[in-house]
Design goal:
It is a single chain. With 714 residues, this protein is mainly beta. It contains 3 helices and 37 strands. The chain has a 22-stranded antiparallel barrel. Strands 1-8-9-5-6 form a 5-stranded mixed beta sheet. The longest helix has 14 residues. It is globular and about 75 Å long.
């Protein structure tokens, strides 16, 4: 077959799909290449100069043989002295995990705290996740949360490393770091596309094209696009989003590779909630609204654009060392026309609520440069590994709020239970406060894996961090200057050919921007994290198992104290916390036809007086998913997400969310090696539940929904 023919077919496919993208050609959303894990895909060749983490899309596996996410060293999960979970492309495609929120809610020990329609916090082991990485490069959070519905289409897999993980990211707390590993070009042509239709007029299109751009394969490219247009179970909420991911890489010499890429995601929601539903009546009893209830009129919106441009250079030396330089520019733009409802409604007539309309615009520009080198060295007759690196970043944020005078801020709001969704749009003519600040961070880090013997390996490292901030955030100074060195110590002992014992200890350094009761910024939280465990590689390394116990202590961790009406901000106090618990996880292939991922977490969190704190975080969680190739063309699957009771105490009373479980089912039929259809049913039992008690307001999660996908792969 002519080598140009399949490339033309792939290009024609993308052109044919492009008119279907709801956010026009302005955005093509990276959607998972919904190719069959069992279908035969071209082999992915990885050369020394282009050595990256192992891609999982072509293998169809639920595990990865190695990862650099934890320490910067290429290690298997068994060689890593921390708990690590991986959600691979195959699992993402099987269960249609198209949002980062649902992916992380499927990971052991992690909770996506969805507080509004378009903003989410993330926690692990009861504490906030503040370290997001893309291909191992940290991307800072300006305010500790994520705006918009982040799509998973451009990622080959997502790694979650639990415990304090400040070794390469610069800051650490005893939660987790999440590393998003992007899809990369392939040396052989591969292409896929999928069309999905689902509940609430959900329409989605995905396409993925990769392969050589030159006859000799020295230049390669990948283009991933996806777009989604859907209504919602929530009244008046509608979302359009599109994602584009393009990357070109070239072998400029046999040992040197250059890459250039750009990613863009646009979210266009309307009917967006700012804040959520009141969860208590004025007499302290719990509210119980319809699942579809929303506080947002139809004229509200919260647009967001996230663009990332990156350039990489990798060089493979003859002695086995590799050097890498990565430049990243990220820009996040937000434009919200918002409507906040606050107060405690009367249990009889629903009165007592008031409004707070606002226009909120924000721009956050981030520039990150990372330079690292890694490779083997010999000492005392044994070979060891070392990685050294430096990162510098600058994050500039400008935000502005404008309030409405007609209707006035504080105007009464009708009974939410009977409200028809109509409310006049404000004039937004009262200039409000804003933020304009710059955060600069510099890190020097190093880690080494020492082979003390054939069975005992030590992982030693340290990160030296300097943070400089200037500017103001809503009339409060953001200025600070802090320097800290955080050490890391780990050990892995292979007690048998398939079994290892491990332990790790690291210090915690978490800068905080929350304000204390004196309206001054809290000092950083500090402490330490310890973890001990056992790991195994079973069934010819197709199945991984682990059991871990962990303990962490923190001093001066920000905890909400009260809402200050004078400054319109929540004030915090520093609390000393102690957490401990254990986790168990099994993931991989039980046989050629059965894949499994199951994880259980149990923890306790107390303050220095022994009282429970952060009770909004579940103390016990079970995550399980599996698929069974029942017949050559038929795959069946199920997943369960169970969490224990949570609560939050407020001045008006206590909010409680009973324990609950969500059951999801899937079935896939392969009509041929290239064409398939998938049926997904989520929340099969139609469970009513609150998505989070992170705030003292909340919204209900999605009720039962269904989707059908038709896919093609080459």
């Amino acid at each position: 077959m002519n080598s140009r023919t399949p490339r033309r077919r792939g290009a024609a496919l993308l052109l044919a799909l492009s008119p279907c993208l709801p956010v026009a050609a302005q955005v093509a959303a990276p959607a998972a290449a919904a190719s069959s894990p069992e279908a035969t895909l071209p082999a992915v060749t990885v050369r020394g100069a282009a050595e990256t983490d192992e891609p999982t899309q072509a293998t169809g596996a639920w595990t990865t043989r190695r990862s650099r996410s934890a320490t910067g060293l290429a290690q298997s999960a068994r060689e890593t002295p921390q708990s690590m979970s991986t959600i691979t492309r195959s699992q993402i495609d099987d269960f249609k995990l198209t949002s980062v929120n649902v992916v992380l809610d499927a990971a052991t020990g992690v909770v996506a705290e969805k507080v509004e329609t378009d903003r989410t916090y993330y926690t692990a082991r009861g504490f906030d996740i503040v370290n997001f990485q893309i291909d191992g490069i940290g991307l800072p959070f300006a305010y500790g949360l994520v705006d918009g519905d982040l799509d998973t289409a451009i990622y080959d897999r997502i790694d979650v490393i639990r415990g304090a993980t400040g070794l390469t990211s610069g800051t650490g707390n005893p939660s987790a770091a999440v590393n998003f590993v992007r899809k990369r070009p392939t040396r052989e042509l591969q292409a896929s596309a999928a069309l999905t239709l689902g509940s609430w007029n959900d329409r989605r299109v995905d396409a993925d094209l990769a392969g050589p751009l030159s006859a000799d394969g020295r230049v390669r490219g990948r283009l991933v696009v996806a777009a989604q247009d859907k209504d919602s179970y929530l009244d008046r909420y509608h979302l359009k989003k599109g994602v584009f991911h393009g990357i070109v890489e070239a072998d400029v010499t046999p040992d040197t590779m250059l890459s250039l890429g750009h990613t863009l995601q646009q979210n266009r929601p309307t009917g967006s909630m700012w804040g959520a539903l009141p969860l208590l009546y004025s007499d302290g009893t719990p509210t119980d609204y319809d699942v579809s209830t929303s506080t947002a009129p139809s004229w509200t919106s919260w647009k967001s654009d996230t663009a990332i441009t990156f350039a990489e250079a990798r060089h493979q030396f003859a002695n086995g060392w590799q050097a890498q330089a990565v430049l990243t520019h990220k820009q996040i733009r937000g434009d919200g026309k918002l409507f906040y409802v606050y107060g405690l409604p009367d249990p009889v007539d629903g009165s007592g609520l008031a409004i707070y309309p606002s226009i909120y615009t924000t721009t956050n520009r981030q520039d990150i440069a990372d330079l690292r080198a890694s490779g083997p060295f010999t000492l005392a007759g044994r070979e060891h590994e070392l990685v050294v690196g430096a990162t510098t970043s600058r994050s500039r944020l400008h935000a502005q709020s404008t309030y409405g005078s007609n209707p006035d801020v504080g105007a009464p709001f009708p009974d939410l239970a009977t409200w028809d969704g109509q409310y006049p749009e404000s004039t937004f003519d009262v200039a409000g406060d804003g933020a304009r600040f710059t955060d600069k961070q510099r890190n020097l880090y190093a880690a080494t894996r020492l082979s003390a013997s054939d069975a005992l390996h030590l992982v030693l490292g340290a990160n030296h961090t300097r943070i400089d901030s200037s500017g103001v955030s809503y009339s409060v100074s953001r200025a600070r200057q802090e320097t800290k060195t955080t050490p890391y110590v780990g050990a892995v002992w292979d007690v048998a050919p398939q079994w290892s014992l491990y332990g790790s200890w690291t210090s915690i350094f978490l800068p905080q921007f929350e304000l204390g009761d004196d309206l001054q910024r809290l000092a950083p939280a500090t402490g330490s994290n310890t973890e001990l465990g056992v790991k195994a590689e079973l069934l010819d390394k197709r199945l991984s198992a682990s059991l871990a116990v962990f303990r962490a202590k923190q001093a001066n961790l920000a905890s909400a104290l009260r809402f200050d009406t004078a400054t319109n901000q929540t004030l915090y106090e520093g609390v000393d916390t102690r957490s401990r618990g254990f986790e168990a996880e099994v993931v991989g292939a039980l046989s050629s036809s059965i894949k499994l991922s199951a994880g259980y977490t149990q923890l306790a969190i107390h303050d220095d007086e022994g009282e429970d704190v952060r009770t909004f975080s579940p103390r016990r969680m079970l995550r399980a998913a599996g698929t069974w190739q029942a017949l050559p063309p038929l795959k069946l699957g199920a997943s369960v997400n169970w969490r224990s009771e949570t609560s939050r105490s407020t001045g008006a009373g206590e909010i409680r969310q009973p324990s609950y479980a969500l059951l999801n089912l899937m079935a896939r039929w392969d009509f041929s090696p290239k064409i398939y259809a998938t049926l997904n049913l989520d929340n099969v039992t139609d469970k009513k539940y609150l998505t989070s008690l992170y705030w003292d307001q909340g919204l209900y999660g999605e009720p039962r929904k269904a989707s059908v996908s038709l896919g093609w792969s080459y």
